[in-house]
Every structure is written in structure tokens, then in C-alpha cells.
Amino acid sequence: MAFSLCSTKTLLLLFLISAIPVAFIISSELAKPPTHVYHYHSSGFFRECAKWDDLNRRFLVSFMEGGIGEIAVPEDHGSSSEEAVLKEVTLVKDPALAGNSSLGIVVDRPRNRLLVAISDILGNKYNALAAYDLSTWDRLFLTTLDNEKAFADDVAVDAEGNAYVTDAKSNKIWKVGADGKFVSFIRNPLFIAKEWYKNLIGLNGIVYHPDGFLIVIHTFNGMLYKIDVTKEDHEVKLIKVAGGSLAFGDGLELLSPTKLVVAGNPSGRLLESLDGWETVSVVAKFKGPAHRLATAATVKDGRVYLNHMLGMGYPKKQHALVEAVFSI
Predict the structure, then answer these.
(1) pTM above the 0.85 mark?
(2) Could you say which residues form the signal peptide (predicted)?
(3) Which of 151, 155, 165, 215 sits CB 3.0–4.6 Å from 174 for a disulfide?
(4) Phi-psi region of 160 (alpha: psi -120 to 50; beta: other; left: phi over 0)
(5) Higher-confidence residue: 267 or 66?
């Protein structure tokens, strides 16, 4: 019998196949979450990063369509049996950056500012670092990073206010001074995976350790790097990882001098180092709503929350900040 794409049986089969992921998503959304979740309504489907601003009791979130928003958390939120869905309020919608995405963010508390990695995610033709005052939301500086094709993905800030922005396409790091002036590139052969396809998404999540070094993850090959920024040559070392793979790791959050959270797939992994980040062990994992895609981690009142990129619903898009409770 000839096979026909238009036959009733074929169309029924295609319907059933497509219904499986839809049914999984619906089931996951209706299920009671095993940990605490902050839900909030948003105007957009994609929220790349979220960081807790403790002084102002709010989550700050980056818009993939460009911009920054806040989700204020009232003091009494959670006192009732059923928490109200929070609301996102737009703080920044910069006309000069129209058509570009706001991606990784970091709160620079000593200088009362938010640093934002900006990128043209479709064409990779524009990349920048922006800084905004946390009180007035005036733009403090906007630094263009590259004229070549690149992908500014995440940002960290050191004790002196220098910013470090990862390039997920060309596997390098831009260094920008506290005054917004471009300083230098950090490049190293260790950043380049041997297999070409593992460089499709390269250097991604980045954090600054108070002992004077950066910790950076390579998303597709799962490598973790230690970069000494106190040395002029920015010495790069490969951190040896035991206890599991870090492939598809995305955003990072330092919990303490010895513990680090990796957001990504699976939702979260907890790492511990007892030797100054020469080696690490994956000591625990957390599995959240996989269909929403965990992309960043933050800490609120000692509890880890994972930002999930995808919002659900229409016209209001409901997003989720999910508490990560790690288990061995």
C-alpha cells in the first residue's frame, strides 16, 4: 500500500505525536510544585536572567526583547495559604538599544548600579555593556564591545568595579573598566572546544570570586574555568569536575566561597570546592520545570531561586522563579 502524508492514519499519527509534548507541558503546569515558586505576570514570553535586589525587595529581570523589569515582593507575601501572582513592572526600555536583547545582569551594590549584557542574538552584529543607576534608572554608560560577530551573554563585576562579559560565540571575555571604558580581551586556547559543534554556544555563565578570580562555564562542552584577574596575563586554568557533567550549564551564582550553583539542564546543580577551585564536585542536583528552561540563579534570604526563561499563557505571560532545593 502506498504511503500517503495526507492519509487519515498519517494525520492521526502526527496529531498523537504532537499531543505528547503538549500533554506533558499541561500536566507539568497543573501539578503542584514540590518547592516554593514566585509566579509573576509579564508582557513578554522570554526572561533571560533574574537577580534578587535585597535592599529594594525585588527581583530584577532582563527582557529578551530588550529592557529591564522588576518584580516587587511585599513583606507579607506568602502569609496567606495561596500566594498572589506578582506583577512585572518595566524599569528600562532604552530606545538606543531597540532590536537588541538584554541578557545577563549583575547587581553592582557598591556603585548602586545594574550591569547588563546587550546582544543582537539573531545577527550577532551588535554587542554592548550597559550600566543603569539602581535608584533613578538613568543610563550611566553604554560601551560597544565588538564590531565582529559575537554574542555578549553574561556579566560579572569585581571588587574594583571592572566588568567581565562572556562572548558565547567567539569564546572570549571582554573586560570593561568601572568608568565604562573598554580595557582588554581575555582569550585562551582552553576556551575553544575541539569539536566545532560544541562551540555553537561557548563561554556563558560567569561569576567573580572574592579571592580575585572569575569562574566561567562553557555551555556545550561543560568545562569550568578559573581565571585569575589579579595577574596581568589573566591566568586561565581548567577546573577539574567530579561527580557529574556540567554540559548545558548556563547561569552561575556563588553561594559561598566554596559553593556554586549552575543553572541549566538539568535545572540546577550544586558544586563544592575544598581546594580553592582547583577541583570541584557536583554534590547535589535539583530538577524543576524542564519545559520552562532554567537560565539563571539568584539567592533570596539564603534560598536559591532559578529563573526560567519561558513564560506561559496569553495575553498575560506567567513566569516562574523556582526555589531550588538540592538533593544528592
Answers:
(1) yes
(2) 1-27
(3) 165
(4) alpha
(5) 66
